[in-house]
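Postdoc handover notes: sequence design on the structure in folder B. Input C-alpha cells:
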C-alpha cells in the first residue's frame, strides 16, 4: 500500500488550521491527488482574516483586508474564484493630528513639511538601503545579519537621529505594520520584512501598494470559496490536541477523534503551538523560534454611519494620530457603493494595553472622539460601533501577525523558521519569503509546504 492509498477513512495528509495557509496547502495537495483533511479549531475558515455582515447590511473586515498589485498569488486565487475587488478610497485631503492637537491637512504620502519629517524620511531611506541586501530564502546569509538581529528597531532609530518628532513617526510606522513597539522588534526582522514586501513604501502607502484595494464581499471571501471547493475535507470546531509521530506516519488527536496520516502540515500562528502536545517534543530551535515570535497587539474598530459624510467635506477619511488618543491610524472602509459610511480605527501596542483596560463606554468614547478629529463632529454619532480586540481572540492569541524579538533570528532562525520536524511540516505567513505577514505570504507558504509533502510522499513511493 502506498502512502497515497491509505486505509479507508485515513487521509494521506492532515492540515492543522483553515486560514489561507492551511487552505492553500490542502488545495494544492488535493489537486495533486493526495487525500487530505483540514482540522480547524474555530467555527469558520479564514484564520486571521474574518469579515462580518453588520446589522445595517455593511460587510466589514475585522482582520486582514487589503490586496496590493504585487501580491500575485492572492490575485490569482481571487480571479479563480471570481472574488471582486475595488480601490481603497483615498480621494480628498488626509489629516495628520499631532500630539499638541494640531491638525494638518495634506495630499499624497505625507505633508510636505512638519515635525520630524525630514529625519523620518532620511532614516526610512536608510532602512530601504539595508533591506536591499537581505537574503529572503536564507536570511542568516545577509551581511551583518547577527549585528542587525541583536538590536531592536528602537536602538537603531535612536542611534540614527535625536529628533524626537521623527522618532514618534518611526514608532507609529512600527506599530502600524507589526502591531508592536520599536523596543520589542528585531531590527533584522524589520529589514527582512521590508525586503519581503519590496520596500518601505510598499508597506505604508495605498495606491499601487499593500493597501491598494479591498474585497467587495470581504477579504475572507476567497477563503470561503476555497473551503467550499474542498467540501467535507474541511472540519470546523475540531481543535487539535496532540500530534504523535510514529514509525510509519502521524497520529493527530482532536477533541473528537484520532486521525492517522503519512504527514501533517501545521498552519497556525507560532504562539498557538503551545496548545498542541507533540510526541516526540519539537526540536529546541522550533520551540525557540515560536517563543521569540509573539503575536502583535492590535484592535480594529469600525464606526458605521448613514453616509460617508466626510467625503462631502473634501476629506479622504485617512488619518494618522500622534497624540494621546488610543487611535493611531484611520481609513475610510465604506462599501464600494458608498451606501453607508464606515471609518476603521486601529489601536496598536502600548496604546492598546491602556485602551483595552477601559470599560465599554470609555473605549467607545475614546475612539469616536478621535474619529471626530479626523472627520468632524458627526463622527461622534455612529449608527453602529464594532470592536475586534485581537489579543482577546481565543485561537489566534493576538493579531494579525507575529514579529520576531531581538536575537530570535540568530538563535533559532536557521533551523526553527520553517524546516520540517520529521513528518511535521510548517505553513503560515510567518514562514514566507515574499510578502511575509500578509495574506499573499500565507498563500505562498501553503504552496511551499504542499510541495515539501508531495516530494516526501513521492520519495516513499519510489523506494517502495
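Designed sequence:
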Amino acid at each position: 500500500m502506498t502512502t497515497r492509498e491509505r486505509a479507508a477513512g485515513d487521509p494521506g495528509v492532515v492540515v492543522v488550521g483553515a486560514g489561507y495557509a492551511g487552505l492553500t496547502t490542502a488545495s494544492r495537495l488535493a489537486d495533486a491527488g493526495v487525500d487530505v483533511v483540514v482540522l480547524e479549531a474555530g467555527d469558520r475558515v479564514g484564520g486571521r482574516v474574518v469579515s462580518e455582515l453588520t446589522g445595517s447590511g455593511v460587510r466589514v473586515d475585522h482582520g486582514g483586508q487589503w490586496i496590493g498589485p504585487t501580491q500575485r498569488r492572492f490575485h490569482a486565487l481571487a480571479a479563480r474564484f471570481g472574488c471582486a475587488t475595488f480601490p481603497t478610497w483615498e480621494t480628498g485631503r488626509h489629516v495628520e493630528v499631532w500630539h499638541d492637537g494640531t491638525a494638518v491637512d495634506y495630499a499624497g504620502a505625507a505633508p510636505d513639511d512638519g515635525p520630524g519629517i525630514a529625519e523620518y524620511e532620511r532614516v526610512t531611506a536608510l532602512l530601504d538601503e539595508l533591506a536591499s541586501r537581505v537574503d529572503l530564502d536564507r536570511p542568516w546569509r545577509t551581511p551583518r545579519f547577527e549585528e542587525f538581529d541583536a538590536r531592536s528597531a528602537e536602538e537603531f532609530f535612536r542611534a540614527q537621529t535625536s529628533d524626537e518628532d521623527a522618532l514618534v513617526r518611526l514608532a507609529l510606522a512600527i506599530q502600524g505594520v507589526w502591531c508592536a513597539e520599536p523596543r520589542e522588534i528585531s531590527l533584522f526582522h524589520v529589514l527582512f520584512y521590508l525586503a519581503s514586501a519590496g520596500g518601505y513604501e510598499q508597506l505604508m502607502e495605498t495606491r499601487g501598494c499593500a493597501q491598494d484595494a479591498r474585497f467587495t464581499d470581504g477579504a475572507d471571501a476567497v477563503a470561503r470559496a476555497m473551503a467550499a471547493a474542498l467540501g467535507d475535507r474541511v472540519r470546523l470546531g475540531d481543535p487539535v490536541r496532540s500530534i504523535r509521530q510514529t514509525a510509519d506516519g502521524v497520529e493527530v488527536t482532536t477533541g473528537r477523534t484520532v486521525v492517522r496520516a503519512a504527514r501533517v502540515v501545521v498552519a497556525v500562528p507560532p504562539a498557538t503551538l503551545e496548545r498542541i502536545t507533540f510526541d516526540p517534543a519539537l526540536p529546541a530551535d522550533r520551540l525557540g523560534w515560536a517563543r521569540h515570535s509573539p503575536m502583535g497587539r492590535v484592535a480594529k474598530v469600525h464606526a458605521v454611519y448613514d453616509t460617508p459624510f466626510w467625503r462631502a467635506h473634501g476629506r479622504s477619511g485617512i488619518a494618522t494620530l500622534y497624540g494621546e488618543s488610543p487611535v493611531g491610524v484611520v481609513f475610510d472602509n465604506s462599501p464600494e457603493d458608498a451606501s453607508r459610511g464606515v471609518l476603521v480605527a486601529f489601536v496598536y501596542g502600548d496604546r492598546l494595553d491602556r485602551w483595552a483596560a477601559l470599560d465599554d463606554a470609555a473605549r467607545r468614547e475614546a475612539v469616536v472622539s478621535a474619529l471626530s478629529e479626523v472627520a468632524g463632529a458627526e463622527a461622534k454619532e455612529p449608527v453602529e460601533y464594532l470592536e475586534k480586540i485581537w489579543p482577546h481572540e481565543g485561537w489566534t492569541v493576538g493579531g494579525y501577525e507575529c514579529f520576531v524579538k531581538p536575537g530570535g533570528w540568530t538563535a533559532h532562525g536557521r533551523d526553527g523558521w520553517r524546516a520540517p520536524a520529521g513528518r511535521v511540516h510548517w505553513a503560515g505567513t510567518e514562514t514566507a519569503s515574499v510578502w511575509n505577514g500578509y495574506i499573499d505570504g500565507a498563500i505562498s507558504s501553503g504552496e511551499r509546504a504542499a510541495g515539501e509533502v508531495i516530494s516526501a510522499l513521492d520519495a516513499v513511493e519510489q523506494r517502495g
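Context for whoever picks this up: Residues 1-8 have pLDDT under 50 and may be disordered. Don't rerun without checking with the PI first.
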